[in-house]
Amino acid sequence: MVSETVTRVPAVDGWFTIDLREPHLIGARCPKCETVVFPPREGPCPNPDCDSDTLEPTELSRRGRVWSYTENHYAPPPPYVAAEPFEPYALAAVELADEGIVVLGQVARGVSAAELRVGMDMQLEIDTLYRDDEHEYLVYVWAPAAPGAAGADR
Questions:
Q1: b or e along 88-102 (b: 16 or more beta carbons within 10 Å of the residue's beta carbon)?
Q2: pTM of the entire structure?
Q3: pLDDT in tens, the chain (154 residues)
């Protein structure tokens, strides 16, 4: 029996919020030295000059600039679920505006690597990776920031 309602769930739990209007990545921050990491994790601070044993979950900025980019022409291995037939897609490494760390992610559908430039303003969005009878599996993607959008002028 096919469910009449589909539940939206993250494809990777705990890496981003699923607020479709203003999604955020979820990272971890050291409360002692303010070092930030993504993806989020528990345990000691990765800064070798810090002796903190804890990292705390924190929302990260949703805007940044392209640091590097490429286009993927091969379907990734499972557990990734590729469309049939496979369609190439762009990947961008984006340096977050506030934290300065670089986060790799798929670029929004319809945006090719040929349209990207190093230094280009990007914003975080949510897209559907795939669906089954009960769930719509969501992922974060990078999309070109709208001109004049908050943070797009940095």
A1: ebbbbbbbbbebebb
A2: 0.87
A3: 455 688 999 989 999 999 889 999 999 999 999 999 999 999 999 999 999 999 999 999 999 999 999 999 998 887 777 778 888 999 999 999 999 999 999 999 999 999 999 999 999 999 998 888 999 999 999 999 987 655 443 3
Q: How far apart are the first and last CA of the chain?
A: 51
What 3-state DSSP class applies to 115? helix
Q: Would you list the DSSP string of 52-83? A: ----EEEEPPSEEEEEEEEEE-SPPPTTS---
Could you tell me the two tokens for 132?
Answer: 């089954």
Rounded-to-integer distance, Cα 89 and Cα 28, Å: 28
